[in-house]
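User: Hello! I'm new to structural biology and keep hearing that structure can be predicted from sequence alone. Could you demonstrate with UDP-N-acetylglucosamine 1-carboxyvinyltransferase? Please show me the input and the output so I can see what each looks like.

Assistant: Of course. The first part below is the input, the amino acid sequence of UDP-N-acetylglucosamine 1-carboxyvinyltransferase. The second part is the output, the predicted structure written as tokens.
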Amino acid sequence: MERFLITGGKTLSGEIPVKGSKNAALKLMAASLLFDHPVTFSNIPDINDIHSMKKLIELAGGKTYSEDDQITLDNSKLISSNLDCDIAKRIRASIVLIGPLLARIGKASFPHPGGCVIGKRPIDYFVEGFKKLGARITLSDDGYKFSGRLRGNDIFLPFPSVTVTETLMMASAIAYGQTIIKNAAAEPEITQLAELLRLGGADISGAGTNTIVINGTNSRLLRMKDPAPFKIIPDRIEAGSFVILGALLSDCLKISNCCPEHIESLLYTIESAGAKLTRGEDWIKVGRSNDIRSVNITTGPYPSFATDLQSPFSIFLTQAQGESMIFETVFEGRLAYLEEIKRMGANIILCDPHRAIITGPAKLRAREMESPDLRAGLAYIIAALVAEGDSVVHNVYHIDRGYERVEERLRNVGASIQRVQV
Ligand code: EPZ
């Protein structure tokens, strides 16, 4: 077990480059199952969720080769449609493998998926979507079994779910006939996934909008014409979290290797609250401002305010003058971490599972905390860096799922944070 020891109150400065997007890389790796030739990706983050996905693919018969920030996946001889239960339970994203496995092998089974504990996170939209595509589904204590030859259909999603859109898009890419996904999610990770599938010969239009049209290849597998590595987009949640950190604690922090366009909602909101930013095509500079004002946020599907940035932003709001409201509309269990921030001295009223009122500014006190999930874990790091004194953050493995050696990178810009073995 490891934990972070953090001494708050230090001023940050310098440059912090953003790594490749976890949530893009995981789905692109899954999509490689639709290819009958190796696919190479670059800008792969070195994080635990990626290691887990790699292992899952290897256990299904895929070959993987990693070097620096690149990974090559050769799924020409995929042999198993079963996912390793232990790993699949650990990462929710494993569910996206069902799409390519079912479309390619005609069957797939998987346990109830895992991942961060942020609400109920059911899988009914996946099940309904696969039924629409003609799959047979049986449920047992072990999990789900899907089988059948997939045929395109019109699918309306009750909510623009990210992984459901991605999974159905992958499955439909090599299915028979046309699929139209309505009320689809439009996150940049989905646009990039469609781009990869198209480079492999899939016929997909509309990705990045709410209607995606896929003309299946009638079971023909995909193949890249160009073997050059496909570069993963920068992680927009990491970029946004560093912007928040810079707005709280830096003289001037340059967030580089990022895509400001992917976090317009955060940038707009934080500027409305008084933060001073400048930006280029792939960088953002931000510094502390003396005049941070309260602002309300409502999380929602892209391009609205990302639910994954809600927890770091709440720390920003503890330092803003006045009363701010957080309205979390995507997940129902994603404000629980605020109890710990209250114990640090923040003035927070948890109105219900979706809404909280934060009144600032508050002086945060150092504390010993347990990271409840990946994004709240980073919020605790930010809170500890703001607080005066020495804090401890436990359950570092949650944070390692999504942020590559975060303590080294934060130290490089002046933070006092050490990883220690317990
Ligand atoms: C993706 O989760 C991300 N994970 C999450 O990031 C992110 O918070 C979320 O999208 C929203 O942006 C990955 O990409 C691996 P959803 P996902 O399906 O796809 C409900 C992180 O920290 N729903 O868009 O699981 C669901 O309960 C993670 O990196 C159903 O009801 O989220 C939620 O209320 C955490 N039935 C809403 O839809 C279903 O079958 C949206 O969730 C599926 C979803």
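User: So the tokens describe the shape?

Assistant: Right, they're a compact way of writing down the 3D structure. Reading them back into a model, for example: The mean pLDDT is 95.
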